Amino acid sequence: MEIYFTDFLTLALAHFLALLSPGVDFFIILSNSSKYGRYEGVLTSVGIAFANLFYILLALFGISLIKDNQTIFTLIKLLGSIYLLYIGFLLITSKKRELFNKKTTISKKRKALVKFFSMGFLSAILNPKNSIFYFTMFSISIKSTTPVFVQSFYALWMFFAVLLWDIFVVYLVTNKKSKLFLENYSNLIEKISGVILFTIGFLIILETLI
């Protein structure tokens, strides 16, 4: 397992930094948690996590099929690295946004549990960026010699990282002091994450071409 530690660190760091950056899933968690409550926000998070698991398994299966073809695998790795550069650039150049709409207040409603799970699941499953991102992550971290149990560990790690991070976001959103922190520093977090992702993508391109 130690020989794959560097690959795992690269995958885990890039994945976590991507999670830190507010996207579609973040805003639906924010919306449901603010409007309906913590429990509903957690259910939304669970739905998002399972949609991500679908794309994780799909990407893992796809990479496993082509990893023995070195030319295709190298090409995909380079394209994946360019995608990381693209994400990093977008985050670095992102403008500060208002996360919480202070003018709108909606009363708390009790809705069917399935609905909140479905809202999270559909939000993530209908986002094509998720499939591209996970394919990128596996193309960078998996080699032709990477055993199945290590690949499975990567997949489980990313699933639980999404789930636990999204639940953590729910708790932040439903706490007044944490909401203030998110409002003040979310853009700075995006820019720092962008610099690191851009650097990772650039280093992987160098490693692949040299």
UniProtKB/TrEMBL annotation:
<feature type="transmembrane region" description="Helical">
    <location>
        <begin position="154"/>
        <end position="173"/>
    </location>
</feature>
<dbReference type="GO" id="GO:0005886">
    <property type="term" value="C:plasma membrane"/>
</dbReference>
<dbReference type="Pfam" id="PF01810">
    <property type="entry name" value="LysE"/>
</dbReference>
<feature type="transmembrane region" description="Helical">
    <location>
        <begin position="12"/>
        <end position="30"/>
    </location>
</feature>
<keyword id="KW-1003">Cell membrane</keyword>
<protein>
    <submittedName>
        <fullName>Lysine transporter LysE</fullName>
    </submittedName>
</protein>
<feature type="transmembrane region" description="Helical">
    <location>
        <begin position="185"/>
        <end position="206"/>
    </location>
</feature>
<keyword id="KW-0472">Membrane</keyword>
<keyword id="KW-0812">Transmembrane</keyword>
<dbReference type="InterPro" id="IPR001123">
    <property type="entry name" value="LeuE-type"/>
</dbReference>
<keyword id="KW-1133">Transmembrane helix</keyword>
<feature type="transmembrane region" description="Helical">
    <location>
        <begin position="72"/>
        <end position="92"/>
    </location>
</feature>
<feature type="transmembrane region" description="Helical">
    <location>
        <begin position="113"/>
        <end position="134"/>
    </location>
</feature>
<feature type="transmembrane region" description="Helical">
    <location>
        <begin position="42"/>
        <end position="66"/>
    </location>
</feature>
<dbReference type="GO" id="GO:0015171">
    <property type="term" value="F:amino acid transmembrane transporter activity"/>
</dbReference>
